[in-house]
Amino acid sequence: MDIILFGMQGSGKGTQGKILAERYGLKVFEMGGALRTMIASKSELGNLIKDTVESGNLVSDEIIMKVVERFLEGEAKEQNILFDGIPRTMHQTEALLALLGSHGRDAFALDIKISEHEAIERLTKRRMCVGCKEIYPAFYKGASCSECGGELVTRSDDSNLDSISKRIHNFKTETMPVIQHFYKRDRLIEVDGEQAIPDVTEEMIEKAGYLFS
């Protein structure tokens, strides 16, 4: 069973997703990282993505699905996958589910739920390492990255309330309908993301466990 991970900006889904993947042996497909890897490959598809990004355009859903398909072709059917960062829209959802079906795969969604107020509070206080890009929440008091020692700074898009509001608006208008789609199909696990981090992890692992038992 594959997992499609959702969560409003600031929900901590990237961190929690890594924990879930390690716990149940899932291979993580993170859309941003997959695009960067494809660009670095300098393949025909990678060069196309590079040209698209450098021209300031969004990577089309068609290209995104080609990246996903390349990834799936390199994985055994028995290898469960955690998708992070895709799908963001209903169009992507339909395309992704069709692609998974064509590879004999099935998916369940998991949503780490936080309120808009909580999201804004977290985003304006979190920091990022300038070196390895690791994200640190507000409660982390260190001045440098625990992974590589790099300087921690506030991301430019986290210091701008207009930018944050736009990202949350896009999530609510584009991605919330996707989450509702899985809910209506009884294919959604909801986790309270406003608990203490260890409690979020515990609830997530407990609720997802039956999918892999």
Q: Rg from C-alpha positions?
A: 17 Å
Structural class: alpha/beta
- Strands, total number: 8
Count of helices? 8
Characterize this entry briefly:
The protein contains eight helices and eight strands; from the N terminus they run βαβαααβαβαβββαβα. It is α/β, with parallel strands linked by helices and 213 residues long. The model has no long low-confidence stretch (mean pLDDT 91).
What does this structure look like?
The structure is a single chain. The chain is α/β, with parallel strands linked by helices. It has a single domain (2-115, 168-208), classed as P-loop containing nucleotide triphosphate hydrolases (Rossmann fold), CATH 3.40.50.300. Helix content is 49%, strand content 15%. The chain is built from eight helices and eight strands, in the order βαβαααβαβαβββαβα. It has helices at 13-24, 31-41, 44-54, 61-73, 90-102, 116-123, 161-184, 197-208; strands at 2-7, 27-30, 81-84, 107-113, 127-129, 135-136, 152-153, 188-192. The strands form two sheets. The chain has a five-stranded parallel β-sheet, with helices on both faces. A hairpin with a 5-residue loop joins β5 (127-129) and β6. α2 crosses α4. The longest helix is centred in the last third of the chain and has 24 residues, at 161-184. The protein is globular and about 45 Å long.
